[in-house]
Description:
ATP binding; kinase; 30% helix; alpha+beta; CATH 3.30.1330.10; PurM-like_C_sf; six-stranded mixed sheet; 351 residues; four-stranded mixed sheet; 2 domains; magnesium ion binding; thiamine-phosphate kinase activity; Phosphoribosyl-aminoimidazole Synthetase, Chain A, domain 2
Amino acid sequence: MTAASSDSSVPSEYDDAARFPLDSSGEERLIGRLLSRYRSAPALLGPGDDAAMIAAPDGRFVISVDTLVEDQDFRVEWPSGVRTSGYDVGWKSAAQNLSDINAMGAIATAAVISLSLPRDTPLEWVEGVALGFSAALEQLGAGRCSIAGGDVGRSGEISITAAVTGHLSGAEPRVRSGARPHHVIAVCGHLGAAGAGLALLDQPAASGVSERPWSSDEQRCVDLQLRPEPPLREGPVAVARRASSMMDISDGLLRDAGRIARASGVVMAIDSSALTFDLDMLRDAGERLETNPLNWTLTGGEGHALLATYASLEDVPSGWHAIGEVRAGQPQVLVDNQEPSALGFDHFSGV
Length: 351
């Protein structure tokens, strides 16, 4: 394993005040420092008034909201000893919200961000959230998205909620209900790496399993759990290639394929032999944790790949992987013509 996940990408120009807890700062000062760290495209009317004003280029926009909660969606300190930085949490919040917009075939235009924080949270950690969110916008390809405003409040645990809007450029949104029999199932992005990274992070440092350092592939899996990399340029590409349905994979391939199956009233039949494209990256973690890497590919969440259906194989864009077919029948997911025993993550069942 590695030492703590600290942010080599976070600038080092923090002044001494940044290292004090929030209770020494005050709300106005905290807001000012956050605004000084956010970097994004300008909004029509951004922070400073009671509400922001954003553009709706074709008279419509899509909107999505998501929340990250301490000890539910991330840990400040993992059993492995890795510490989650504010930069990590800011990046992850941006990535998961941008991915939802992308899955509708839209381009992100604006974000508002709400932070709830214990009073002893270091100001430097909170500023890292702003830096990480801003960096994700730039590096993931959402440079046209403005940070239009937000809110801060006190709470017993750290949570960050972001809402992101996006425009459709005159196209129709891609929804989950358009899959039809004989369509091709395809994915774009990483499958299973974030799930393997979660398993590595959750492995106690004192266990014999974690004594040897992580390999480069294992570290890459951890990185993709802490800072996902959704394929943001591919949502509009899928629209141009007439994807019939689409969503992002946040809770695992099988669980999310089941959502398309139910919305479309079809069977989503997946061929496991087509899921080898990321397995090499998962092998070291599988050997360490005595887990079949295919399990992470099928059920691991938080990677934010795209899952879509297309009318024919010829319509599947370059860089995507065809992994199965849509069939007529009662809504369900099949793997190699069998019903799987596990699907993926559920917030309320805990699995």
